[in-house]
Specification:
Elements: E1 4-9, H1 15-29, E2 33-38, E3 52-53, H2 58-61, E4 64-68, E5 71-72, E6 75-76, H3 78-85, H4 88-92, E7 100-107, H5 114-128, E8 131-132, H6 149-153, E9 161-164, H7 173-195, E10 208-214, H8 218-233, E11 237-243, E12 265-266, H9 269-274, E13 277-285, E14 288-289, H10 291-300, E15 313-320, H11 327-340, E16 344-345, H12 353-357, E17 366-368, H13 377-397, H14 411-416
Parallel strand pairs: 1-2, 1-4, 2-3, 4-7, 7-8, 7-9, 10-11, 10-13, 11-12, 13-15, 15-16, 15-17
Antiparallel strand pairs: 5-6, 13-14
Helix pairs in contact: 1-7, 8-13
This protein binds flavin mononucleotide.
Flavin mononucleotide binds next to helix 1, strand 5 and strand 7.
Length: 417
């Protein structure tokens, strides 16, 4: 099916508009229906770009979005943020889930906050329940060439496209090429996410989900089991795997042998290669994921080309000591690594009431052990939802037919289509 891609940009001097035009052309080259949408300036002092003005409702129309904002003080510009904030009513009504999003930015200084800007965009998109695609090594079926101009032009930036703004608002040829490539890539992922097709060679097979968890943390292990159960609910074949290694203290607190259940098999990189979708669970250590998980992720990356996570949906869940002790920062730092690996980050977002009930962390399920070593019923339900979501996203990106109604087929969207 033809994907619909909206390229939403804010630009005063022309850099972002030139990149947006190139991304739109790349998406069209993939066969997408494309709209180039201008975010209005605060005071209308900027140039009158001859494009449609972006409205929050336009997000409903799009299967995929290229978000394109200049870097202002290491963040998106205020007009761009106003556009994002304008989607609140649609978000609240649950209408913005499962869009595929990528980002582009420009800054004067090569290291002037552009990564921060892209990551901030993705944080907002994750609140919608969007999937985020960076410019990391492309996976199977991904139209972008990992050795192509997109990677070179991005200067190795795995989060999206970030270019150096020229004084006259012009854009270098290789930056334009990189934007074109990113638009084409986004359209490809959006097409697969929307329709589940074209079917891959193993389209009839069950979806495969690997859930990896740090072995010594009982809370995380229980969340992992529930996440695996959620994926199985959707018919997925699941591998529940444990990570061991120095740096993770034993933290049981439960009666009997650490939780009583037989230990899962130790994880191997082949478990990630096997999967269509991967979920990682970890205790939070110093505001970030535990060392064994980081070590495992780093071990996956080949010296060149895509690794086993490239092009696959991935997300995480965590346990912390106390409610505000790093659950968000750990998940966000995990997302950075996943983008480096070329994964499509598919966090829970606010895609189900259970996310709110479990404390409302849109980046991944989290449980604070100050509430008990056993995860709450709400946290377990959120982990199960995350597992279902991983299975569904894996099905879609691998081209398997998705059972039941599509996630995007809300009555309002049917009206708008
Ligand atoms: C209010 C403001 C804040 C800015 N902050 C940064 C910054 O943090 N880092 C940086 O390198 N450039 C910064 N810049 C430069 C812009 O990133 C640059 O002008 C912009 O990317 C050009 O995009 P445009 O041509 O689409 O308007 C800032 C510019 C403005 C107006």
């Amino acid at each position: 099916m033809t994907p619909r891609v909206a390229v939403v940009y804010h630009s005063r001097r022309g850099t972002m508009r030139a990149l947006a035009e190139a991304a739109a052309a790349g998406a069209r080259a993939h066969g997408a229906r494309v709209r180039l949408l201008r975010v209005a300036d605060d005071d209308e002092a900027g140039p009158a770009w001859p494009d449609e003005e972006a409205r929050p409702e336009d997000v409903l129309w799009a299967d995929g979005l290229v978000l394109a904002s200049p870097t202002y003080f290491g963040n998106v510009s205020a007009p761009f943020k106003r556009f994002l904030d304008g989607t609140t009513k649609l978000w609240w009504d649950g209408l913005l889930t499962d869009r595929v999003v990528t980002g582009m930015t420009a800054s004067t200084c090569p290291h002037g906050g552009r990564e921060a800007t892209l990551l901030t965009m993705y944080q907002s998109a994750h609140h919608w329940g969007a999937w985020t695609v960076g410019a990391g090594p492309a996976g199977p079926g991904d139209p972008a060439d990992p050795a192509g101009p997109a990677r070179r032009g991005a200067g190795g930036n795995p989060y999206g496209l970030a270019v150096t703004a020229l004084r006259d608002g012009g854009v270098a040829e290789h930056d334009r090429d990189a934007a074109w490539e990113l638009g084409r890539r986004l359209a490809g992922v959006a097409a697969r996410a929307r329709s589940g097709g074209p079917p891959g060679p193993d389209a009839a097979a069950r979806s495969r989900v690997t859930v990896v968890h740090c072995a010594e943390d009982e809370t995380v292990r229980l969340l992992a089991q529930e996440c695996a159960a959620g994926a199985r609910e959707l018919g997925a074949e699941v591998r529940l795997r444990r990570l061991t290694g120095p740096g993770v203290r034993r933290e049981s607190g439960l009666p009997g042998r650490a939780g009583g259940a037989p230990a899962a098999a130790a994880v191997d990189p082949a478990d990630v290669a096997w999967a269509d979708s991967v979920v990682f669970g970890t205790p939070v250590r110093a505001g970030a994921v535990a060392a064994p998980l980081l070590g495992f992720l780093q071990s996956l990356e080949p010296p060149a080309g895509p690794g086993p996570l490239a092009g696959k949906p991935a997300s995480g869940f965590v346990s912390t000591a106390r409610p505000h002790a790093g659950s968000e920062s750990a998940l966000l730092s995990l997302h950075h690594v996943l983008h480096h690996c070329g994964a499509v980050v598919v966090p829970p977002g606010y895609t189900d009431p259970v996310v709110f009930e479990a404390g409302g962390n849109p980046y991944g399920t989290s449980h604070a052990r100050s509430a008990g070593v056993l995860p709450t019923v709400q946290a377990l339900a959120a982990a199960r939802h995350q597992g279902r979501r991983a299975a569904l996203a894996g099905d879609r990106l691998r081209g398997r037919p998705v059972p039941g109604a599509g996630l995007l087929d809300t009555p309002l969207e049917k009206e708008l289509t």
